[in-house]
Amino acid sequence: MLCRFAAAGRSSAKLVAPLGCLVSRQKHTLPDLPYDYAALEPHINAEIMQLHHSKHHATYVNNLNVAEEKYKEALAKGDVTAQVSLQPALKFNGGGHINHSIFWTNLSPNGGGEPKGELLEAIKRDFGSFANFKEKLTAVSVGVQGSGWGWLGYNKEQGRLQIAACANQDPLQGTTGLIPLLGIDVWEHAYYLQYKNVRPDYLKAIWNVINWENVSSRYANCKK
C-alpha cells in the first residue's frame, strides 16, 4: 500500500499508494531530528523527546517495513485475504511514520509567536484572528478522546484552511483529504512524563515551540 515517504524537512509528506512500487521499494528509515533532544526545554523535556523519537517513532518505522514486506509477499502470491488483513498495520504504522515526520519539523527551539505573511493572512481570513485559530486548534486537540492528533490542514478544493482531529495514527490527508500543515500529537507518550494527565498544560506549552517558518513553507507549497 505504501511506496516511499518524503523525508522529514521536505516541503510535503504523504502516502504514495501504487501497489506495484512495493516490488522495488526502499525501506523506510527514522529521520534525524533537526535539533537536540533537549533543545525544546522547558516546554518539552529531553526525556520525552528521546523516547518519543528513538523508541515510539522508530517502532512505527520498523513495523511499517515488516508490514510492507508481508504485503509484498501477499501480492506475489495473489493472496487477497492476507492483503486485506494487513491494511490496519499499514495504516497505523504508515500513519505513525508520516505524522511524526511532520511533527518534528513543526517544532523548533526558535519557534513560538505568530506566523507571518501569507499564512497569517489566511488564518485571519478563515478563523477571524490568530488568537481565535489558536483557541480552536487547542480545543480540538484537548478534545481528542484517547489518542490522536489535532491538525491545521489545507482544503485544496475549497482553497481554505481547516482544523481537524484524527484518531490514533490516522494520517490527515489519507483520511480527510486535507493537506497537513501543522500537527499536534496528543498521544500520552508525547507529554505524560512531564505534564502527567493534564493535556491542556502540554498544549499551552507547545505553542512556544511551533516552527511557523516550516508551517508557512508547507502552506506555500501546497498552493502551487
If you had to describe this structure to a student in words, what would you say it looks like?
The protein has 224 residues and is mainly alpha-helical. It has two domains: 61 residues, Fe,Mn superoxide dismutase (SOD) domain (Helix Hairpins, Orthogonal Bundle), CATH 1.10.287; 106 residues, minor pseudopilin epsh fold. The protein has nine helices and three strands. Helix 1 packs antiparallel against helix 3. The two termini are 26 Å apart. The N terminus is likely disordered. It is found in: Mitochondrion matrix. Its EC number is 1.15.1.1. Belongs to the iron/manganese superoxide dismutase family. Its main location: mitochondrion.
The number of helical segments is 9
CATH topology of the largest domain: minor pseudopilin epsh fold
Measured as a percent range, the helix fraction is 40-55%
Mean pLDDT: 91
CATH level-four homologous superfamily name of the largest domain: Iron/manganese superoxide dismutase, C-terminal domain
**What is the radius of gyration computed over CA atoms, rounded to a whole number of angstroms?**
18 Å
**Strand/helix succession:** HHHHHEEHEHHH
EC number: 1.15.1.1
Family: Belongs to the iron/manganese superoxide dismutase family.
Keywords: Manganese, Metal-binding, Mitochondrion, Nitration, Oxidoreductase
Binding site for Mn(2+): 52, 100, 185, 189
